[in-house]
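On to my pick:
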Amino acid sequence: MPRSMLLGLALGLVPALFTAACAADPAAEAALKPAQQPFTTTEVARFDEPWAMAFLPDGSLLVTEKAGKLVHFDPASGKRAEIAGVPQVAYGGQGGFGDVALHPHFADNGLVYYSHAEEGEGDTRGAAVARAKLQLDADGGGKLVDAQVIWRQTPKVSGNGHYGHRLLFGADGKLWISSSERQKFDPAQDMKTNLGKIIRLNDDGSVPADNPFAAQGSPADQVWSLGHRNILGMAFDAQGRLWADEMGPKGGDELNLIQRGGNYGYPLVSNGDHYDGRDIPDHDTRPEFVAPKVSWTPVISPSSLVIYDGALFPQWRGSAFIGGLSSQSLVRVAFDGDDAREAERFDMGQRIRAVAQGPDGALWLLEDGSKARLLKLTPRP
């Protein structure tokens, strides 16, 4: 449909670049193509089913590959080597090797945290989070030593979907874990499980005494918020607020401002519906549940989240960037206090699995799937 006709049919609605959600998908129609984008996209390397990346202090990268590899890659030289000591992973569907994050004092203690899907009894699986010391060698390779699992999803269940297992450290050194509901719906509201929750732990895996449900015992004492479906991105803004993006069911992807002890309603409410067509009541029907700050229908399939604070793109300081899988996009979200809106969408032409900010302020993207590109985004000259 010609853009002029599309805008005419919109009957004066705010342009799609500045809307959160609508019945059609004008945001996708209006996504900026490469020639219109204010950045240059450079392919730096390729990886096989990458899932996450973390920058080391020297500017090199750790990249996880879903089938069970941890790669050390130096963008300056192009040199790469595999890190030994990675656990055996339950690979299949959405399962495998997951996130990677550095301890806030990595320069002193060398601790790396990583998540993965692991096998259980009777054809069950669940996410686990471990930490280990990274020992690099002179050739750029190395190994993980003194590995210790510090957290597990409970219970392990059947299926290969919705592990979540994103990792994030806060300014206070606490470890945050997104524990998705494993496509089982009800556990997101069940405090006898840690599924469908955001988890807050000390860096050794112990439970902080000030968690909101600490008095209820394990596993409720781990929980910071509940009622989540599939959280694949978390980030703190400059004010210390935690934001998380979440895949909705058929419609209703979300960006949430995470509250202490907040219940986000899934599966009792969602701005999407079940895949079989059954209705799920919208958030506005149940005000006791925390509603998303941004909701997308059609979905963007959010995969990751970073809040930008670099110098290369000064106009974007304080904006969030979300990788889009089905939308094959990079979505910029602008904030106004506790409110948020989609501000721009960039057509990347491929599913975007991960977004990170580099040490120099460049934006780095990992595509999804085999032979996926690592991309570096820098301002146009």
Observations:
- Confidence is low (pLDDT under 50) at residues 1-23.
- The CA atoms of residues 191 and 216 lie 9 Å apart.
- The helical segments are 3-9, 26-30, 106-109.
